[in-house]
Amino acid sequence: MNKQSSLTQKQIWTVAKWEFLHFFKLKQEIISKLIMLVIAGIIYFFATNNMHLAKQYNIAVNTTFELASHIDPAFNFIKLGDISDLEHNLNETTDYDGLLKYDFITTKYALITAEKDTWQTTFKSQLNSALKQAQLDAINLTQAQRDGLAKNTDVEHYILNEELKNQADKSQTYTAFGVLILLFVAMFGIFGQLFVSITGEKQNRVTEQLMATMTPQTWIDGKLSGQILLALKTMIGTLLSIILSMLFFTVVIKQQTLSLDFINWAMLPWFIVFAISGLGICAAFMAAIAAGIDDPNHSSKSALMMLPIAPIAIAFFIMDTPNSVLSIVLSYLPITAFAVMPVRMSLVDLPFWQPLLSLFLSIVCFYYLRICAARIFKMGMNMYGKEPSLKAMWLAIFKP
């Protein structure tokens, strides 16, 4: 009995070990996690790149600035006797990064800059804290001082670059980011559907039968078209759900009139077109990766299908520097343009040809990506039972 029990336990362990190792491949797991770390690193770079002060910033002031010791040493304050000329010519000089103007009547500071940049947020935050701390450090408070503590010490910020849109009107920014959020939701839908569809049909030998009646390019084009339509349906459905929820809580619960002023209807068509181009590019990329996956349970390539999410995350971190070289390059690079260009359009008045060129490049990118996806799929079908390497997938792109 003990011998039989020992044999049974050994068999159970053997089956358990086989089942575990069937789905767990250490090498593939490590590669998958490394890919995810690279993606996280890319997003972290863009997130932290905007948080650090890149250089020494020269700030002109029109009064003795006693709070300099409470501000980051990266800010160098230079007192000028007359600031009127500099105020009007700040966008033409490189000697000063900004002008801190003190109003002797209202006792308030105003920051004037030629462009919008990330250091300005840091500076205003530190200056506000220093001003409040200076008030709290006062002793023997008089009534006037008590009233002064109650005053708003926020620093006003004026940007001289006329290309930057009026920041008081947030409708364009809200619309751009709203479309990006809907795009993010749709991307996850495409990820799951393409992954299950392509890999599942390959394993069930369904596509082998379809290949007898159509070319790989036809099959890929049909897949992509259907997934893009499904993604648009997801975006529209999610949007309708949000609007209906707002309608219910605003009209029914709060008994108020529903206002959709936060949507910029003039820019919405642009954002939708960019969203569609982004869906096409990301769907083609995901289809190419999925076509090279033989066993979805332990393939390291699965993590690569998450790469199209990175441009959407990056777009949220460039809004403080819409005119930086990096933002401009990303707004034309097809793999990021669908997310970055709408954000730039919501913040900067761009000539008509710039978003049009960006959209054209995105469409060209989608056109060739779908061809690459079809070639990789054709190779994958010819290597049934063996998962192609990334090198083999890359070489297959150049073989008609």
Give, in order, the helices and strands: HHEEHEEHHEHHHHHHHHH
| Overall 3D shape | elongated
Tell me, rounded to a whole number, the average pLDDT: 75
The assigned structural class equals alpha/beta
Note down, in words, how this protein is organized:
There is one protein chain. The chain is of the alpha/beta class and 400 residues long. The protein has 2 domains: 57-159, 3-Layer(aba) Sandwich (D-Maltodextrin-Binding Protein, domain 2); 169-396, no CATH class. The protein is built from 14 helices and 5 strands. The chain has helices spanning 2-23, 26-49, 84-89, 118-136, 143-150, 171-203, 206-210, 216-253, 268-291, 309-315, 325-332, 334-347, 353-382, 390-396; strands at residues 57-61, 75-79, 98-103, 108-113, 156-159. Helix 9 (268-291) runs parallel beside helix 13. The longest helix is centred in the middle third of the chain and has 38 residues, at 216-253. The chain is elongated and about 90 Å long.
Keywords for this entry:
D-Maltodextrin-Binding Protein, domain 2, 14 helices, alpha/beta, five-stranded mixed β-sheet, 400 residues
Write the layout of secondary structure elements.
Blueprint: H1 2-23, H2 26-49, E1 57-61, E2 75-79, H3 84-89, E3 98-103, E4 108-113, H4 118-136, H5 143-150, E5 156-159, H6 171-203, H7 206-210, H8 216-253, H9 268-291, H10 309-315, H11 325-332, H12 334-347, H13 353-382, H14 390-396
Parallel strand pairs: 1-2, 1-3, 4-5
Antiparallel strand pairs: 3-4
